Description:
- By secondary structure, the chain is an alpha+beta fold.
- The chain is built from 4 helices and 8 strands.
- The protein has helices at about 35-50, 130-140, 145-150, 160-165; strands spanning about 5-10, 15, 20-25, 60-65, 70-80, 85-90, 105-110, 160.
- Strands 1, 2, 3, 4, 5, 6, 7 and 8 form an 8-stranded mixed sheet that branches.
- The longest helix is centred in the first third of the chain and has 14 residues, at about 35-50.
- It starts with 6 loop residues before the first strand and ends with a helix.
- The mean pLDDT is about 90.
Amino acid sequence: MAFAEKNLIVPAPVEIGGRHVKRYHVTADPSGIEPEVEKAAYALLPELLPEPDGTPAASFVVLHRGGDTGAYLNVYSWVWDNVLHFAGGAGGQPALDCPDTDPTHFVPVTGTARERSWIGCVWELAPLDHERAAWIRHVLAPEVPDLAGYLADSLRSGTTATSAASAL
């Protein structure tokens, strides 16, 4: 199997369940993730978000359309001021207890009887270092946390290979 980087598309943040959610989409398809897959993934998102704990209510997600029938939603939420909470969902991947190979049939893959605490594959991990640095820069380092600054500080669209370099 030859490794190839994938496209990284960065839609605008949204507010869901009282949380501000930055979004990253990963796909081999340069036209992006199919709208019906995106809609199904974001329909599951509210049940994957943690309860408020006093930390500025911010999360970021990586929605990945795999090269097979699968689609994967990784949800990373800031809690305890400086801790990253993870929850995930998948559609179209029977190996992850999805009901069938339809990528719009999303189910949780964390918090289930067959817990999957995987935090992401090599393509899905591209935004993590940037998000850590942005959280420190805008929320932890200033005297007054700047949530708006954090939400505006995302990687640029490109590829999963150039995403880390573009953040420097």
